[in-house]
Amino acid sequence: MHLLFFIVVLVLLVFGPQWWARYTFRRYAGALPRIPGTGGELARHLLDRFGLPDVPVEKTGEGGDHYDPEHRVVRLGPGNYDNNSLTAVAVAAHEVGHAIQHQRNDPKLALRHRLVRLAQRTQQLGAAAMFLLPVAMAITRAPSAGLLMAGIGLGSMAMATLVHLVTLPVEIDASFGKALPVLIEGNYIQPQDEAAVRRILRAAALTYVAGSLASLLNLARWLAFLRRA
Questions:
Q1: Which of 10, 83, 110, 196 has CB 3.0 to 4.6 Å from 88, enough for a Cys bridge?
Q2: What are the DSSP E strand ranges found in the chain?
Q3: Is 58 a catalytic residue?
Q4: Which of 80-84, 107-111, 216-220 has the lowest mean pLDDT?
Q5: Residue 161 near residue 215, CB atoms below 8 Å
Q6: Closest CA to 200 of 8, 30, 10
Q7: What whole-number distance in Å separates Cα of residue 47 and Cα of residue 53?
Q8: CA 57 to CA 19: how far, in whole Å?
């Protein structure tokens, strides 16, 4: 009974934020006549307003909304690029918030960018090390070889976990330090819509909470496995 309760809590912690975020995005995805433009048009307007005319706005696949710091481009899914909904407006402003962070050399965004590059380089090495761990121990029968492989694999997992943890404050700042003040002060949303926009921006941040928890749990699972080995 206790095990079942633990599993249910674990599932809710990892997948609950994602489910709630998707529900929130869908809830406010309906077109509203009082919103004068689409998410793509708002993103273009805000980028121009904040001195970023060289940053393009592109349509990408569904759910692929993001700011690409490598190519300096804002990408929005078709539902947010083409629609004039609260979700489209909030998500567009959020991604422009990342572009503003980049323009202002935000240290949190710069740190995340460096860590992502490092994590990408170590991911393949770590995966190979975890795959070869039992082989190395069987061939060499030397605990040091197994520990070395395990250390490499866990190091790559720890780096991925660190990226998730650093990403969270970056996302929160893009939502509530950049997007929300811009939308309110610029009168891009009406007062009755502010609460809904806050929910949408909060939901966007919660998806990274779920990623952080999943990454931590994966790291803990491997640590427990190695202790038993």
A1: 83
A2: 57-59, 66-68, 73-76
A3: no
A4: 216-220
A5: yes
A6: 30
A7: 6
A8: 27
Identify which of 55, 77, 56 has the alpha carbon closest to the alpha carbon of residue 66.
Answer: 77
The residue type of 24 is T
Q: Which pTM was predicted?
A: 0.78
Residues 84 and 162: their CA atoms lie apart, in Å, by: 36
Query: Token match 């330090």: residue?
Result: 177
Backbone phi, then psi, for 210, in 5-degree steps? -60, -40
Confidence tier at 24 by pLDDT (50, 70, 90): very high
* 3 state DSSP class of 58: strand
Task: Please list the alpha-helical segments (H only) found in the chain.
Answer: 2-27, 39-49, 78-82, 86-103, 107-140, 143-172, 180-185, 194-228
Out of 62, 70, 95, 171, pick the active-site residue. 95
Look up residue 64 and give its amino acid: G
H helices, E strands: number in the chain: 8, 3
pLDDT of residue 31: 93
Separation between Cα atoms, residue 72 and residue 143, nearest integer Å:
47
Paired sense of beta strands 57-59 and 66-68, if any? unpaired
Pick left, alpha or beta for residue 55 (phi over 0 → left; psi -120 to 50 → alpha; otherwise beta). Answer: beta
Say how many residues make up the chain: 229
CA-to-CA distance for 229 and 101, rounded, in angstroms?
45
**Average pLDDT rounded to a whole number, residues 145-166:** 63
**Cα separation, 46 vs 99, whole angstroms:** 10
Angle between helix axes 194-228 and 86-103 (nearest 10 degrees) is 70
Tell me which residue has tokens 């078709």: 78
- Which of 66-80, 112-126, 150-164: highest mean pLDDT? 66-80
